[in-house]
Amino acid sequence: MDKPGWAVRFLLDRGGGVMDFIAHFWERLAQTPPLARNDLHLVMTRPWASGTEQGQAELGSNGVGDHRSGSSKNNAVGRNLNDEAAGEPAGPFTGAMLYVPKAHRADVLATTPAAATAFAQYILGGAASRKVPSVAPGVGGGPEAIGEGDGAVRPAIDFLTGGAAGIDGMLPLLLPALRKRGPSKRVVNAVMRLPERVAGETCSAVRAAREGDAAVLNRWRKLYKEERGILFDADVEAWIANQVVFVLENQGQVASLAKFDLVLSATVEIGGVFTFPEARNRGFGRALVGDLVYRIRSMGKTPVLQVDRANRAALQMYEGQGWECAGDLARVWLA
Questions:
Q1: CA-based, 20 to 30 A from 13: which of 69, 148, 266, 284?
Q2: Does residue 49 share a domain with residue 100?
Q3: Same-domain status, 24 and 113
Q4: Which neighbouring-strand residues pair with 99?
Q5: 23 and 163: one domain?
Q6: pLDDT truncated to tens, each residue of the chain (335 aa)?
């Protein structure tokens, strides 16, 4: 497809809030319009007309010119949705994927096993691939290097993100082609939404970050990376200018921090919630999040946030505050 509208609506309708960030990114594609480029493949799936369980990839012309381009309505793999009549195409969608071979990544929402299989086969069948350098078994790359060698060809995919169930459905097909026994790293976040009955509570100790806070914001970045493995971008001045970072002060010292990761038309995502070690177990993080919830409600929007599934303490804390899980978002590093 070269028009992201159907895919964006699908992500918003079927993603349950899990895919809102990806939908926002896809929606911005229409502004540039990059889907005519060879390195962007927007693919959707829906059931065969016969109504069987088998998913069918509906591929749009994207200038690639290979067997996946779908430039013909009679293509054996799929039909070009851009050639269909105006309005919503007939039949339900079961999945959507943006595959970027040049970046070796894909964003995926597959709501059925058949859709996950179709997306994996699409990636495996692509002409965009790369040769794998010769590596002796078990040397310089661990078990995943076994079976690789000069002339071997692997799919151009190193990173997957999207609905966790669909990603997990793709991995058994992708990993053997990558000569890997498992992903290098897999992180699954519970996407939490706060129901309307929870209004939040303003806290006088919370303020937007301001000039002079750069040192404490950089300390936050450093410690967050050490503890959570995630490094924020370094544009601290832009954070301050845009008023997207908030701090809670205790006795004149910053104790907790958080930021608005994404501000959308209906939701605002809270991210980077962190309390400095010397100030923990005193309710500062909870008070900060409650204040941000109040601010978001005042904007007429719904608060959302992500919590690592492995962080049981944080999950229990948020659930105790009334947050509800909308679904799981997976990030998988294959390289």
A1: 69
A2: yes
A3: yes
A4: 41, 106
A5: yes
A6: 677 888 999 999 999 889 988 998 888 876 665 555 677 889 999 887 554 444 455 544 333 323 333 322 323 345 555 555 445 555 589 999 999 998 899 999 999 999 999 999 999 986 445 444 433 333 333 333 334 444 556 789 999 999 999 999 999 999 999 999 999 999 999 999 988 888 889 999 999 999 889 899 999 989 988 887 777 776 888 888 889 999 999 999 999 999 998 888 889 999 999 999 999 999 999 999 999 999 999 999 999 999 999 888 889 888 988 999 999 999 999 98
Residue 191 lies in a domain: no
Q: Has residue 58 been placed in a domain?
A: yes
Contacts of 313 (CB under 8 A, 6+ apart): none
Note whether residue 335 is domain-resident.
no
Q: Please give the residue range of the domain that contains residue 140.
A: 5-183
Pairing verdict, β 302-308 and 267-275? parallel
Alpha carbon of 30 to those of 23, 203, 236, 295: distances in Å? 12, 40, 29, 31
Cβ-Cβ contacts under 8 Å for 238 (sequence gap 6 or more): none
The verdict on 12 and 157 lying in the same domain is yes
Q: Same domain, yes or no, for 161 and 268?
A: no
Does 159 share its domain with 291?
Answer: no
DSSP H stretches of helix in the chain = 5-14, 20-29, 113-124, 164-177, 214-228, 236-242, 284-298, 312-320
